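Supplementary Text 2. Reproducibility record for the structural model of the 297-residue chain.

All settings were left at their defaults, and a single model was retained for analysis rather than an ensemble. We include the record here because the model underlies the residue-level annotations in Supplementary Table 4.
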Amino acid sequence: MGTHVSGASELHGSSSGGAQLLLSELLRGAPALAGAGGGGAGPVTSAAATAGELPFLFKVLSIRKALSIQAHPDKALAARLHAERPGVYKDGNHKPEMALALTPFEALIGFRPLREIHAHLTRFPELAAVVGSETTQKLADAAGSAGDNTPAGRAALQALFGALMGADEAAMRAQLATLVGRLRAQASSPVGTLEELVVRLDSQFPADVGTFCALLLNYVKMEPGQAVFLAANEPHAYLSGDCVECMATSDNVVRSGLTPKYKDVATLVSMLTYRSGTASSQLLSGEPFGAAPHTTL
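Retained model, structure tokens:
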């Protein structure tokens, strides 16, 4: 629900033999409906409402197949991308978003702590083979000395992610086939384990480099009522479940894997913050709001 040009909401029953009335058209004629005016600090400025714009998009997602490895640009980068490639990046706005789980929900969100990633380079040697021994050693050194969220740690993480995303396609596919074949040959992994997730992603997107991202990004599992906030320039991918999303009015998505859509790998590698942290640190749980039994903030 929103007024973005890529899919503006229509008013049900507003057609009289012609096109449905767009929400943006309604707001232009009655800006007070968006909370503008009235002498207070409403959620929408009078100028925006008069122009038929809402500052947010509201979505309901039901995910059966993983969505892409992606991030959303900050305002400065969004403006530049839109100016350079308006056919790909449809607007110049940023897209911070919050997702609230309606059912059990899975996602990849943010980079794992460096020590976890280092452990995965040993546990899954196919990943180390793709990124190379020098990059693997840099990450190991950073995990052992510099630590998370330091300049050296972020540089090592960017080098690792860049090496993975820019790896030779044939070599990457061969190593991924080896990894998936090895995991399939083991005893069946329970649903929700990392091994099962890798096999599942490969079955949905065969030979896609995005499957390796499950070894670098936090595998986050949410229960109904839990939420996550995704700031600009943070990597993520929704995997399964139902959720509601609220985000700034933008359609800007920079993708690099698990998708048949356009992949802008160079932009994604350069734009990320390379912050790292635990899966639990990504979760938000609401607190009761007043006496309302079903409302949390």
